[in-house]
Amino acid sequence: MAARSENMKGFYRQRKKSGVTKKPLQPSSSSNKSPKHSPTFGSDVTHAPALLSHGSPDLKDEYDESEEVLRQFDLNMAYGPCLGMTRQARWERARRLGLNPPYEIERLLKAGKVEPQCLWDGRV
Amino acid sequence: MNSLVKFGRTSHLPAMEPMEIDPEKALQRKQATYSSLDDNFEIQKETYRGQQYSQIYFARLHLMRTLLYSLVPNRKPHLPVCTILQLEEGKECIIVGTLFKHMKLKPCVLDEYSKERSATPLVRPHNFMHTDDNLVLEDDSGRVKLAGSVLLPSAYVTGIVVALHGKETDAGDFLVQDVLEAGLPPQIELPLKSSEDKYVVFVSGLSVGSSTSNPLHFQLLVDHITGHLGDEKEQGIAAKIVHFVVAGDSIEIPRGLLNGQNLASKDQSRLSEPIKELDILLTQIAASLPLDIMPGPNDPANFSLPQQPLHRCLFPGSSAYNTFRSCTNPHCFELDNIRFLGTSGQNVNDLEKYSEAKDKIEFMERTLRWRHLAPTAPNTLGCYPFTDRDPFFIESCPHVYFVGNQNEYKTDLIKGSEGQFVRLICIPQFCTTGIAVVLNLRNLECHTLSFGTEFISS
């Protein structure tokens, strides 16, 4: 199917506006994600039209700002390695060791609806 | 409640006179207040969630780095402290991190797959040191190779957290000018010196069931401390023994029977004979005085440190007594407010494989000055993957530090910079030496009890 975009940009891989590059691996643990999230290199011929919002493919998967904040917490080396622990356990460890992790993280975790495991869980 | 033992007055007449227990002359055993501090070493509450050892290394680095950061201003007040990534060439500063020692001869699991197979065996049993060993310091930002002659690789192992004073060279190494170890931890002052002698007996490496152990030696030891041997003077001394500690390797299971086949019932009873024999002897002790038994590398307990207490079902006779206590390895307890800390030897034996020292006492002293019981865990010593703590970190300096299953008896008294003093004891293997160690709580002095069964021909 021909791409819906009218300019040449549709043929080339485009950088996401937020600067985060797309992940080369399909997350295997997420079973409820539809195939439209599969990344491609170069041609976006297989992209469903709905993905191409504002003229660029939306490759952010389904995570929002709170997940972004939690991922930054995962990657912050000051709180130690994130693999093998739930985010809640890691936050509590950080608090117990006197590292003063921001309370916002705990609030997001307690609110529910977010991934309890770190971003590498199931991928490495 | 400790049980009382009354020693009878023996009759000197050859006729069979019944033994009378004269209540006025009966000797009472001394008692000491005991409290166990093994909670840190219990792992029942831990759950394994697939974590790796990076978590325990992080906990260790964080704990010790916070500690070292507080000590550095007192020792080197004018030097800046920075992380490894912040190092600048030529700038003198202090960095804190975990040591890693590259060892050429350390057995690597990949050696099995190496194409060149030389005639020398892949694993040498004793010491893996080599003159080419070098040290690297690592923190959560990066790692840097260490150079200079101040830090000798032969005295250090992977897993110690230290602060180093030095500067980066143009080769990209860190030239070490001085090492700051944590030093002996703070010690709770000993209570007022009591005037009475109270003894604690340590024994290790009983190896009941092995071909080298002589059951008569252990029976002699049991008879002596329970007061069934000797005259009144001897019994008087035995009555001052307040505690008995068995520091690991108490039995030797005939492993030859475990070859993967189903065990015949005859073999099944052979397998459990050593533990039954040990239980009989421990029951005699438990009936008389409080007893602590720790697991060792060859005992039926878990392999990785901290080893969990031997199960009570192994000791049906002795566990009926409340004087019988099965403890973890490492074991920490207090007797009359004197703090004891000890292991069954794995921590120091592992240090001996990867570093060198004058004697085992020096290894023990090093672990205290590094404030870590087993720095080689989890690198070369099996260890549980803790996530939020490192139970081997020594927070409070013990007054007595013992290590079991050693080749010979050695003891020393070391002093710290803040008035701490520690009695270090290497407990020899009883099955080969027949030696038990006796510690006097009044002055922390040690002597040995030696048992032998050779007939001296005149």
Describe, in plain words, how this protein is organized in 3D.
The complex is a heterodimer of chains A (124) and B (458). With 124 residues, chain A is mostly helical. Chain A has helices at 65-75, 87-96, 103-110; strands at 52-53, 56-57. In chain A, a hairpin with a 2-residue loop joins strand 1 (52-53) and strand 2. Chain A starts with 51 loop residues before the first strand and ends in a 14-residue tail after the last helix. Residues 23-40 of chain A have low confidence and may be disordered. Chain B is an alpha/beta fold and 458 residues long. Chain B has 7 helices and 17 strands. In chain B, helix 2 runs parallel beside helix 4 and helix 5 (346-354) crosses helix 6. Chain B is globular and about 85 Å long. Residues 1-13 of chain B have low confidence and may be disordered. The A-B interface holds A 77-78, 80-81, 83-86, 89, 92-93, 96-99 and B 49-52, 54-55, 58-59, 62-63, 66, 140-141, 385, 387-388.
Strand order of the largest sheet of chain B: 1-11-12-13-15-14
Estimate the mean pLDDT confidence of chain A: 70
SSE pattern of chain B, N- to C-terminal: EHEEEEEEHHEHEEEEHHEEEHEE
Largest sheet of chain A: 2 strands, antiparallel
Please report the total strand number of chain B as a whole number. 17
Integer-rounded radius of gyration of chain A? 18 Å
Helix content of chain B: 10-25%
Q: What is the tally of helical segments of chain A?
A: 3
Q: How large is the count of helical segments of chain B? A: 7
Beta-strand level of the residues of chain A, as a percent range? under 5%
Structure classification of chain B: alpha/beta
Largest interface: pair, residues per side: A-B, 15 and 16 residues
The residue ranges of chain B in which pLDDT falls below 50 over 5 or more consecutive positions are 1-13
User: Which range best describes the helical content of chain A: under 10%, 10-25%, 25-40%, 40-55%, 55-70% or over 70%?
Assistant: 10-25%
Please tell me what the overall shape of chain B is: globular
Q: Largest sheet of chain B, described in full?
A: 6 strands, mixed
